Amino acid sequence: MIVSSLRGGLGNQMFIYAMVKAMALRNNVPFAFNLTTDFANDEVYKRKLLLSYFALDLPENKKLTFDFSYGNYYRRLSRNLGCHILHPSYRYICEERPPHFESRLISSKITNAFLEGYWQSEKYFLDYKQEIKEDFVIQKKLEYTSYLELEEIKLLDKNAIMIGVRRYQESDVAPGGVLEDDYYKCAMDIMASKVTSPVFFCFSQDLEWVEKHLAGKYPVRLISKKEDDSGTIDDMFLMMHFRNYIISNSSFYWWGAWLSKYDDKLVIAPGNFINKDSVPESWFKLNVR
């Protein structure tokens, strides 16, 4: 069995799920997740499990968790030993630092393992792309505001361009950092050279920054800021309906572009993701700060 603990925001939860399911399918074994521990311990960002909004099964495994006194101590021991100290038949596979695509995890036979990491590269699950896309079908009704935004996106069709602007950084020591307006303006110019009469739809938690720095040269629409979990899922649904994308170094916006309904999509992404293998080869990597 392949097991992992779900953690982080929606984008990271999706990467963990995709990695675990693809490894399980590849090795013809079941998979399961710890659905509670890391969310309960997230005292800073207070993330919640959001995968339940999708058309997928989340089998739960409590046997391999570290949800007990001194659990973090046993977790550290397991990392160092490379096996689950309480269940030695399970390998303990921790993502290498700095993160990158680890091809050995694809080529090796792995039947019992506990995975720890975010695995932010499509190379881990590209051979099961269709299965992953089918799992990430959203099963909720759009809020009325989101429905109106979707209708405008559909109306403009090829002229609509999604921009995902991230203006925060979760760790002071993490590589990547916050992108400044030079990146977005350069990407907008590139899109304008390829798309007739472009209209840019901006997703961000800092719409004031977007208005100040990105509006003016081209038509810009601001997607309403949504605070709750349901709104996060609505934004993911909206993003899937574009053909053209400019994303920041965000796993959330990454998935919005990757799950696009259109095979001929155009995606511009920065080169400063934490995982150097995050940007698919078919996307345009723009190295501008």
UniProtKB/TrEMBL annotation:
GO CC aspect terms: membrane
What are the record keywords, sorted?
Answer: Glycosyltransferase, Transferase
The UniProt GO MF terms for this protein read:
galactoside 2-alpha-L-fucosyltransferase activity
**A biological-process GO annotation:** carbohydrate metabolic process
Keyword Glycosyltransferase found:
yes
UniProt keyword Hydrolase, yes or no: no
One protein family per Pfam: Glyco_transf_11
Listed name of the protein: Putative alpha-1,2-fucosyltransferase
Supply the source organism for this entry: Bacteroides fragilis (strain YCH46)
